[in-house]
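Friendly challenge for the regulars: who can give me the structure tokens for this chain first? No prize, just bragging rights.
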Amino acid sequence: MYLDFCVLQALLSVHSESSANAPRVLKGARRVVRRQGKRVLAAIEDSLRFEGERVAVKAPELRVQLLASPGELSAIARECDELALSMCPRLPFATSTWLELWWRHYQEQRFFVRDRFYAHALRDEAGRLRAVAPLMLTERPGTGPLRARTLAFFGADKNITELRGLICAPELEGVVVRSLLAHVNRHAEQWDWFTWNGIRLGSDAHQTLDADPNYHWSRETTDYVLCLPRSWEEFRSSRSRNIKESLRKCYNSLKRDGHDFRFRVVSGPAQLPAALARFIALHQLRADASELVPHANVFAEHRARDLMYDIAALPSEALSMRIFQLEIAGQVVAVRMGFVLDDELYLYFSGFEPAWGKYSVMTTTVAETFKWAIENGIQRVNLSPGTDVSKTRWGATPIVMHNGVLVSPDRRGQLVFRALTELNERSRQANILGSLLARARRLG
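First reply, four minutes later:
Bragging rights claimed.
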């Protein structure tokens, strides 16, 4: 029996309750999972027992250690990957392979901007790795007394890294955030502000940051995760009427016009380079299609393409690339990239021939991908962040992550952040005024 993602969310919420509320929470949990079976109920009872132990003995602050170089991160790669697979949902951007290659391709060492490796490992009293904070310290300009110093998680790119944040099991997020917050505040003279991403609303971590007077919430990111049952028929029959109709049309339209398709899943260092080249070409074709809803070409930069080729060449137990292809008349007309993380699949970017758009070839590609995932024991599919109909129509569970800015309590940090905020506001007002004047001139 597969574990429904909404039940996993309920499990996570258990940990924000006190042990005194355990009977009430358990009673509610029994109602939620009555139809899910004894296995899920046992998991929630175990979770409550864990929570009781955690509340009875307050989790001590974790020991925070600076990883001064990429080599120090490589040395704990196996432990880091174990943490990445403990996350819920799992993300390719949290694996050691992604982190090491991202830093290699995206670090900046120029006069106007300089990145410093600033990752941290968090360990418990027994020395066990409990979290990794893949941070960098960016200075603009790269030198001099007037530079601004920003702390941020790896992922300062043009949407190549879709989700950024801490790498840890969800039930430990609270103590991890408390420990890291205390650590960076003790070293407040080293940075001016910290862009902190990936905090779940209502969690212990959210409450900890919300209580800090120097933390300011800025925006939220919604991820979408889909639970898969045991069979395609069970999955299809449980979808909405609209998606059932879309599935019927995309398959029938090809058949009606005499087009047979072949679905292929490409993996492995030997086969992936050619598939990647076709993926990049189709992704660009989709981005250039002015008659369709605008989509950016996120692989326009060479370093984005180089990163993908390097990841394809270095598969690991924690991260393995797949390219899902739809072929018609001997030509690949639609593609979707994905990453397998144990029994979860993360669906990344896509591309297709606009001329085949009338046949809804991307819907067919995604449907065939779901079939493959079910046949290969995948429990959950992450449809990636961003609220649009291509994700919401499948009935996925939304996971809202909150992002914000922690301003350094150091006097310098406060002054720098205030000055830059004022400059940004004036620039915004000037742009608004400029737009209004331009419109007035056009009307005049």
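Residues 1-26, 32-36, 47-57 have pLDDT under 50 and may be disordered. The radius of gyration is 24 Å. Your move, everyone else.
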